[in-house]
Amino acid sequence: MEPMNRQIRLKSRPVGMPAPADFDAVDAPMPAVRDGDVLRRTIYLSLDPYMRGRMSDAPSYAAPVAVGDVMCGHTVSEVVDSRDPTFRPGDLVTGYDGWQQYAASPGKQLRRLDPAAAPISTAIGVLGMPGLTAFVGLVDIGQPKAGETVVVSAACGAVGSIVGQLAKIRGCRAVGIAGSGDKCRSVVEELGFDACVNYKTDDLVPALQAACPSGADIYFENVGGAVLEAVLRVINRGARIPLCGLISEYNATENAAGPNLRPLLVHRAMIKGFIVSDHADRFPAFLEEVGPLVRDKRIKYREHIVEGLDAAPAALIGLFEGRNFGKMLVRVADSGR
Amino acid sequence: MEPMNRQIRLKSRPVGMPAPADFDAVDAPMPAVRDGDVLRRTIYLSLDPYMRGRMSDAPSYAAPVAVGDVMCGHTVSEVVDSRDPTFRPGDLVTGYDGWQQYAASPGKQLRRLDPAAAPISTAIGVLGMPGLTAFVGLVDIGQPKAGETVVVSAACGAVGSIVGQLAKIRGCRAVGIAGSGDKCRSVVEELGFDACVNYKTDDLVPALQAACPSGADIYFENVGGAVLEAVLRVINRGARIPLCGLISEYNATENAAGPNLRPLLVHRAMIKGFIVSDHADRFPAFLEEVGPLVRDKRIKYREHIVEGLDAAPAALIGLFEGRNFGKMLVRVADSGR
Predict the structure, then answer these.
(1) Under an 8 A CB cutoff, do B61 and A257 touch?
(2) From CA A299, how far away is CA A190, in angstroms rounded?
(3) Confidence band for B126, pLDDT divided at 50, 70 and 90
(4) What ipTM was reported for this prediction?
(5) Inter-chain residue contact B61 with A258, CB threshold 8 Å
(6) How far, in Å, CA of B290 to CA of B132, rounded?
(7) B129-143: per-residue pLDDT in tens?
(8) Mind listing the pLDDT tens digit for each residue in B273-292?
(9) Of residues B187, B183, B125, the one with CA closest to residue B159
(10) Theoretical Cys-Cys bridge with A259: which of A48, A229, B118, B123, CB 3.0 to 4.6 Å?
């Protein structure tokens, strides 16, 4: 039997929370390999909150995935065939191949990985897009100064966990917000945050006041909704709020109201939205700083790995329900690495 | 009969819209004049939206006026007695004397005015705090570039009218938002804006889309509420939103919800609150640029003058109801100027 290329395609645009029926698992023919192309087999697929936007045709900063197309996503792969002299079978690469077992395209779209430098999965996690997101939002937009207090929501997630650790390394107090007692314990005990508020059980404003005795100078925002409203009650004069995501609103069928903005005025505070893909020029500086920190285990990361491409739809839905504990990855093929 | 000092004092903290009964008109004794003091008679009193905040004891960026105290406010005055050698009777000065006919304090709290350089009322209008507010918000926070589109709410008011004219001078398209057909006509025909949307009668989003064919790069926000929500629908990538005021919310008895913030994320836009008193260091640069523009009538201004201190409470209430047409001033004494 000829090898096939298993793919997960977008079957229908979800209304509200995506459902398994919005995805289609298909055994497609292997991709054609043209001159200059590199054929690779997916090892890891990254699942990220932004994918909800690509499933929708509401105007956003990037075009949606067309209905019937393969779902998009960052990947780590192994080269299996190459008509590009700079890649050889066995090379490990990272790309944007989406939810499928195989992909072929020109090698210039790939970045080669050194498996001796860091576990290859980190290329789509702490040393990839989520890490760069944390770095750009905290460092470039937040501009933290030693002694300041940095609050971050989704603190146990791929981005939030790095924000707090980078803040600690810069001499800041790091306060997380997460959705379970286990997550809060992990954020404090494993990742070294100073405090963590459980937004599902704590009375948010008093809990934030207790966790931020000097107020909040930076709030790295991943979630929106009631959490943002509460943090605005504890911000300091001149606070900076890098707006990275609003995951609590992504599956809403109506535009939720936002927070009252009077605190921005009273405290001369700033909210600034950003999209990591605008900041690719910061990748070398990011890697230079964070690479050694990860190697030396001064920045820790936790991965939530599900097995097999067919598990991806349920895993993405779990991400929106907060069921992940760390960076959500799909192991598409067992590479032995 | 001895001369008395008529004062308007805060009688009670308003709930919602201030009422005439929240103010008390009192004939107080003349202020004592100590060594180093300057006694002056108020000619003009400025009425401004921020005064609503001072009538409330909700936490804000400045302490409230105490119940029983004279209401605060910027003033233009004539010196009538001076124990400070740098001031003489007849000198014209601007200060922060509040809602009263006379005030005495050290001369260092006063700035001398040259009535030959500009009409003295401009010192609390286009060449005073409202003008500096427009300058700091537009120039320092908005950072306009020629060819961009600048939208400003309360476009017929003391601040908004200057924002649009400064934007035009910088080569931008200026689009106002105001609350009557007369105001919109004045903004376009007298002040030279390119367009003006009537928020009370126009369907806001389509009207803004028509007025901003290339979208909005800067939105100078004075009002909040539904107007802000609508402008967020037409902002461009990288838009800047200097947040100067939220007058539509100042008299709310409950915290209004704010706009959905997804557009900030999608368009990588920024909202930044500011308070003009933090930016006093910019006053010389402001005056150097805007002084000649006013003198040469390249920046026009319109004053809404009410007669007599006792008219101030109703005039301030009118300001919150949008009944002013230009900068709201009280003529406390007729100076013949």
Answers:
(1) no
(2) 10
(3) very high
(4) 0.91
(5) no
(6) 9
(7) 999 999 999 999 999
(8) 999 999 999 999 999 999 99
(9) B125
(10) A229
Short-list B299, B322, B321, B318, CA closest to B122: B299
* Mean pLDDT value across residues B289-303: 96
The answer, yes or no, to whether residue B337 has pLDDT greater than 80, is: no
Percent residues over pLDDT 90 in chain A: 90
**Closest by Cβ to B243, choosing from A258, A261, A274:** A261
Please give, one letter per residue, the 3-state secondary structure of chain B: CCCEEEEEEECCCCCCCCCHHHEEEEEEECCCCCCCEEEEEEEEEECCCCHHHHCCCCCCCCCCCCCCCECCCCEEEEEEEECCCCCCCCCEEEECCCCECEEEEEHHHCEECCCCCCCHHHHHCCCCHHHHHHHHHHHHHHCCCCCCEEEEECCCCCCHHHHHHHHHHCCCEEEEEECCHHHHHHHHHHCCCCEEEECCCCCHHHHHHHHCCCCEEEEEECCCHHHHHHHCCCEEEEEEEEECCCHHHCCCCCCCCECCCHHHHHCCCEEEECCHHHHHHHHHHHHHHHHHHHHCCCCCCCEEEEECHHHHHHHHHHHHCCCCCCEEEEECCCCCC
- Kindly determine whether residue B224 and residue A271, on different chains, have CB atoms separated by under 8 Å: no
Does pLDDT of B336 surpass 80?
no
Residue B253, pLDDT > 80, answer no
